[in-house]
Specification:
120 residues; alpha/beta; Rossmann fold; four-stranded parallel sheet; 5 helices; elongated; SDR_fam; Gluconate 5-dehydrogenase
Length: 120
Amino acid sequence: MTSVYDRFFNLKGKTAIVTGGASGLGEEYSRVLLAAGARLLVVSRSKKGWTELKKFAEENHGQADFFQKDLTDENAGKAIVEKAAASFSKIDILINNAGVQIRNRLADFQDSDWKKSDRY
């Protein structure tokens, strides 16, 4: 018998990209997608958390790949799509989770702060 979870959240055969996918909320998104059967490309500027996520994928018979990329790089988007296409041949889902938090009072923001936050 098919469970309700399998009927409504079956992502087998789908490919997902999660930016910022190795830690915090991004890691949780990654785990849920893997548990639902999606193939996953995790994009992060740091490898922190990747080992645990890869282990989770293997334990759940999932397929995950990692791409270390800083999204403030203006060529990041193109590089991510090329990596996903090379690894999985198609992209079905994008969770654009990566972000930056700049803690300044609005009056204290510099042009460089706006430019950095705008890249995400």
